[in-house]
Write a structure and sequence with these properties.
By secondary structure, this protein is mainly α. Among the domains are: about 55 residues, Alpha Horseshoe (Serine Threonine Protein Phosphatase 5, Tetratricopeptide repeat), CATH 1.25.40; about 50 residues, no CATH class. About 70% of the residues lie in helices and about 0% in strands. The longest helix has 23 residues. The radius of gyration is 24 Å and the shape is globular. The N terminus is likely disordered.
Length: about 325
C-alpha cells in the first residue's frame, strides 16, 4: 500500500477535532454540478471534496489498525467512499473494516455486514479490475461465504479466470485455492505446482502451497515450501514465522525457536514472538531460557494480558 498504516491513534488523536465536516454547500454543488462559492471554480470544489475524502480515509485507516475501533473505522471509511465513490482503495478498506466489525456484531447484524463486505469488494474490483489484491479479496469472499450471503464457487472461478488476462500466475494460485476449498486436493496441488513452475522466483506460490500443506496436515512438504519462501524473502518476518509454525507442528522446537528468533530480528515490533519463544523453551524443558524470554517480553510490553501471563509463568517457573 502507498499509504503507511499507523498502529495506534496517537498521531491522529491530535487532529480528530480539526477535521471539518463536509460543508453542505460543497455537497450541494457537487450534486448540481456547480461551484460552491461565487469565487470558486468547479475544480476547486472537486479538490476540496477529494481532500475531505482523503482525511476521512486516513483517519479510518488509523482506527482500523487500533484494536476495538472497527466502528469508528467504518464511520470514516464510509464517508471517504461516499465522497470519492470511484476510489477502489477506499472501497477495499471499507470492506476490510466491515469484516473487522463482523466479529463484534450480534447474530442479527452479521448477515447485513457480510453483504456490505461483498458489495464493497465488488466495487473495488469494478473501479480497479487489474488489482490482484482486490480480485483475490473478492474471490476469497465468494469461496468462504455461504450461498445465502452471495458465496459461489462459480463466481469465484469467473474472477480467477478474469485474472488470467492480466496475470496468469495469480490466476493459477486463485484456482488452486478454490479447488482446495472444494476438497479437490489433487487438482489443487497440481495447480500450485504449475504456478511455481511458471514463476520459480516468486515467493507467493511457495507460501501459499506451504500453507495449504499445513491445512491438510502434510507438514514435511510444508516445511520444504516454507524453506524456499524464506530463501526468497529472508527480509520479512512472515516467511520465518511460517517456517517456525511448521516446525512446531513437527515438534521440532529447537528449529522453531531459531526461526522465530530470525523473525524477531527482522521485525522487532513483533514482540509477541518473544512470548512464543519462551513457551517453546518450556516445551523443551529449558526453564531458565523460558523465564529469560518471558522477562524480555515484559520489558518490551509491560502491560496487557500477555504481560500478565508472562509474569505468572515466571513466578510458577521459579517455584518448580
Amino acid at each position: 500500500m502507498v499509504t503507511t498504516l499507523r498502529r495506534t491513534l496517537g498521531y491522529w488523536g491530535g487532529i480528530v477535532t480539526l477535521l471539518v465536516v463536509t460543508p453542505q454547500e460543497v455537497l450541494v454543488a457537487r450534486q448540481q454540478g456547480s461551484p460552491a462559492r461565487a469565487n470558486g471554480s468547479a475544480i476547486e470544489v472537486e479538490a476540496e471534496i477529494a481532500t475531505l475524502a482523503e482525511e476521512h480515509f486516513q483517519l479510518g485507516l488509523a482506527y482500523l489498525n487500533s484494536p476495538g475501533s472497527s466502528e469508528k473505522a467504518v464511520e470514516h471509511l464510509e464517508k471517504a467512499a461516499a465522497l470519492n465513490r470511484g476510489n477502489a482503495e477506499y472501497h477495499f478498506k471499507l470492506a476490510e473494516a466491515y469484516a473487522h466489525d463482523f466479529s463484534y456484531a450480534n447474530i442479527l447484524r452479521k448477515p447485513f455486514l457480510a453483504a456490505r463486505v461483498r458489495d464493497e469488494l465488488e466495487l473495488s474490483v469494478r473501479f480497479n479490475p487489474a488489482s490482484i489484491e482486490y480480485r483475490e479479496g473478492l474471490i476469497q469472499y465468494y469461496v468462504m461465504a455461504p450461498a445465502i450471503l452471495g458465496g459461489s464457487y462459480t463466481r469465484a472461478r469467473a474472477e480467477a479466470n478474469a485474472m488470467s488476462t492480466f496475470d496468469p500466475y495469480f490466476s493459477l494460485l486463485a484456482h488452486a485455492n478454490i479447488n482446495a476449498e472444494e476438497g479437490d486436493h489433487e487438482r489443487a496441488a497440481d495447480l500450485f505446482m504449475r504456478a511455481i513452475a511458471m514463476r520459480p522466483t516468486y515467493w507467493q506460490g511457495y507460501q501459499r502451497f506451504g500453507a495449504y500443506c499445513v491445512n491438510i496436515q502434510e507438514i514435511d512438504p510444508a516445511i520444504q515450501q516454507f524453506k524456499v519462501y524464506v530463501s526468497l524473502k529472508p527480509d520479512t518476518g512472515a516467511s520465518h514465522e511460517s517456517l517456525a509454525s511448521a516446525f512446531v507442528r513437527k515438534r521440532m522446537y529447537d528449529e522453531a525457536i531459531a526461526s522465530y528468533l530470525r523473525a524477531y530480528e527482522v521485525d522487532a515490533s513483533q514482540n509477541a514472538l518473544l512470548f512464543r519463544i519462551a513457551q517453546l523453551h518450556e516445551f523443551n524443558g529449558s526453564v531458565k531460557d523460558a523465564a529469560a524470554f518471558y522477562a524480555q517480553y515484559i520489558a518490551s510490553a509491560p502491560s496487557g494480558r500477555l504481560a500478565e501471563d508472562a509474569r505468572a509463568r515466571i513466578v510458577e517457573l521459579s517455584e518448580n
